[in-house]
Amino acid sequence: MTIYLDIILLENLCMNYIILFATGFIIRTKIKAIRIFLASLLGGIYSILTFAPTLEIYSNVILKMLLSVIMVYIAFHASNGKQLIKQLVLFYLVSFAFGGCAFALLYFIRPQDIFFRNGVLTGTYPIKIALLGGIVGFVVVTIAFKVVKGRLSKKDMFCKVTIQIGGKTKTIKAFIDTGNLLKDPISGMPVIVVEAVELEEMLPKELLLHIGEILEGKKSDILSCMPTEYQLKFRMIPFSSLGKQNGLLLGFLTDGVEIETEERTEMIKDVIIGIYEKNLTKNGAYTGLVGIDIIERCGNYEHFASLKGAN
After folding, report:
1. Whole-angstrom distance, CA of residue 183 vs CA of residue 253
2. Which of 16, 71, 221, 230 could pair with 226 as two cysteines, CB 3.0-4.6 Å apart?
3. Given a cut of 70, is residue 54 above it in pLDDT?
4. Are 257 and 289 in contact (CB under 8 A)?
C-alpha cells in the first residue's frame, strides 16, 4: 500500500501535541504552545524516520525512551531531575490512556489496512479518527485524574513558606488550606496566616504580645510608636474562621514570600501575613495556612486545585 509521509507526520504531530497538552494541563504547569509544538514535531519526525529501512536503530527501546525524555523536557522545561521524572511518568500514563482510547475507536470503526511499523500505527484511516481519539482520550484522562486527585491524603498538602520582612527571613511549614481565601479588602492581596510565635525575630515582641488589645483599640499607641515604614505596612484583615465569626486579624505586608513545594520554589510579591495569636494545631504539625490561590499563582503542583471540592 502507499504510505504518505506527510500524513503520518501530521497525524503524529497532532497526537503528540494533544498528549503533551493534556500532560501539562493535568500537572498544572505553564503551557507554552511553541514548546509543545516543537516537542510534538520532534516526535512526528521520529515517526517518519521509522520508515527508513536503513535506520532500524530508531526502533531501539532505549532511543525511544530518550526521545520521550527530550520531548517532555522541551515541552515543560523541568527545573530539576525530580520534576522531570514526574512529568515523564505522567506523560507515559497519558500516552497509554490515549492509546487505549484510539484502539477502542479503531475497534468500533474497523478501518482497512492497519499495520505497525516500528511501533508506529499506520493505515488508511482518516486523520479525523486520530484527532477524535485524542479528544476523547483528553476528556477521559482529565476526568480520571480529577477523581484520583480529589482522594489524595492531606500529607501532600504542605509546603515551606519563607517570609521576608526588612531583610530578615523565617521559614515555616504551612498547610495548603483550600478554604483559605483571605484577602486584604482594600488591596486584594492574598493573606497567609502565621502563628505569632514564628514572627518573634521579625516583628517587635511587644506588638506580638498585645495583638488582641491592638485590634480592640486599647493598645493603639504600640503601632504609633513604631517606625513609619512599619506603620504603613499594617492591615486589618476581616475573617470568619479559626473558631471565630466576624473577627479581625492584624496583618503585615511582607517584602515577599518564597513558596516551596515538591515541584518548584517560587518567589511571590504582594503578600500579607495575618498574625494569629494562638496555635493552629495542637501538635505543631504546621504553623501557617496558605490559600490555594497563592499556590495556583505559582503555576504549580498539579493536584491542589482539584482538592477545592474534595475537602
Report:
1. 12
2. 230
3. no
4. no
